[in-house]
């Protein structure tokens, strides 16, 4: 196994990596930098779009372009024409909220949740966020509310279970999932973490064996866990304490891409952790991921 820097141009808060198998590119965002990136690991070319507000996630769109969850809006972005088209708005009564991590299910819906405004005492306003679903007809429904920081999402290969992270609960939850309707039920905890030891659970992905890989913010690692037993299997150390998210990519879906951040770092801390905020790649894991899915609306 080897961990190396893939893109040595640090951002402030890189998030939401998503492998687009159709184009062979990696999509990811810089939430605080307000950028949407599309990077080609073969040519090393990176196309960047300035979204103009805090951005949480990006996924490919089946008909072309991408869908972006930024601010409180779902929007379509065409990288070629540079056109951004707003589709739907959430949390209209909570204008300081913003959309965060998001992914598509196998039916082509785009799920993304919100988080509250940063607060000097608790770091983020608590219990004011929600998880939303952008359906293929472009309508939006709320799955549930009273969320702190909506983060990682993953589905089992048979689409019967959806895994979900609300970061400040320091756990992974599972829901029974109905792919036809997108309905969730029977919420339960399947994994818990000690934030002082492990870090804070952030973004995650799933491999073909049904094991979860979870980026641990302030933990400098990606943990492989078994959601069926609630046990930690492996720790992949990353030379960036603020490890934020991960996904499998590459032609064989056997390369793990890991995003990181340098939020609030002084020049001294950056000097001690110079690769913080970079995009990393991990090879030789002996695991393969499931394909990243597109929005079909």
Question: Mind sketching the topology for me?
Answer:
Elements: E1 2-7, E2 14-20, E3 25-30, E4 35-39, E5 46-50, E6 55-60, E7 66-70, E8 73-78, E9 83-89, E10 98-104, E11 110-115, E12 129-134, E13 140-147, E14 150-155, E15 161-166, E16 171-178, E17 183-192, E18 200-206, E19 212-217, E20 221-226, E21 231-237, E22 242-249, E23 255-261, H1 267-272, E24 279-283
Antiparallel strand pairs: 1-24, 2-3, 3-4, 4-5, 6-7, 7-8, 8-9, 10-11, 11-12, 12-13, 14-15, 15-16, 16-17, 18-19, 19-20, 20-21, 22-23, 23-24
Please describe the structure with a list of short key phrases separated by commas or semicolons.
4-stranded antiparallel β-sheet, 2% helix, 24 strands, 297 residues, mainly beta
Describe this structure in words.
With 297 residues, the protein is mainly beta. The chain has one helix spanning 267-272, and strands at 2-7, 14-20, 25-30, 35-39, 46-50, 55-60, 66-70, 73-78, 83-89, 98-104, 110-115, 129-134, 140-147, 150-155, 161-166, 171-178, 183-192, 200-206, 212-217, 221-226, 231-237, 242-249, 255-261, 279-283.
């Amino acid at each position: 196994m080897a961990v190396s820097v893939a893109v040595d141009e640090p951002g402030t808060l890189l998030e939401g990596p998503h492998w687009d198998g159709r184009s062979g590119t990696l999509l990811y965002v810089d939430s605080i930098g307000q950028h949407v990136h599309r990077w080609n690991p073969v040519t090393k070319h990176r196309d960047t779009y300035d979204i103009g507000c805090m951005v949480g996630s990006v996924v490919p769109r089946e008909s072309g372009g991408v869908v972006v969850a930024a601010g409180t809006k779902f929007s379509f972005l065409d990288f070629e024409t540079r056109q951004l088209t707003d589709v739907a708005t959430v949390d209209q009564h909570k204008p300081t909220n913003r959309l965060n991590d998001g992914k598509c299910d196998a039916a082509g819906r785009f799920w993304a949740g919100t988080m509250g405004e940063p607060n000097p005492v608790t770091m983020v306003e608590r219990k004011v966020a929600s998880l939303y679903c952008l359906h293929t007809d472009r309508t939006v429904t709320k799955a549930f509310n009273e969320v702190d920081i909506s983060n990682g999402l993953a589905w089992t290969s048979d689409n019967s279970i959806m895994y979900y992270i609300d970061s400040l609960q320091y756990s992974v939850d599972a829901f029974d999932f109905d792919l036809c309707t997108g309905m969730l039920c029977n919420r339960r905890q399947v994994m818990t973490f000690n934030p002082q030891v492990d870090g804070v659970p952030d973004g995650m992905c799933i491999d073909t064996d049904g094991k979860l890989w979870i980026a641990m913010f302030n933990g400098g690692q990606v943990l492989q866990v078994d959601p069926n037993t609630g046990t930690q299997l492996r720790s992949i150390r990353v030379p960036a304490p603020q490890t934020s998210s991960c996904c499998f990519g590459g032609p064989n879906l056997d390369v793990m891409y890991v995003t990181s951040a340098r939020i609030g770092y002084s020049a001294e801390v950056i000097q001690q952790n110079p690769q913080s905020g970079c995009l990393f790649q991990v090879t030789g894991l002996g695991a393969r991921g499931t394909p990243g899915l597109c929005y079909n609306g």
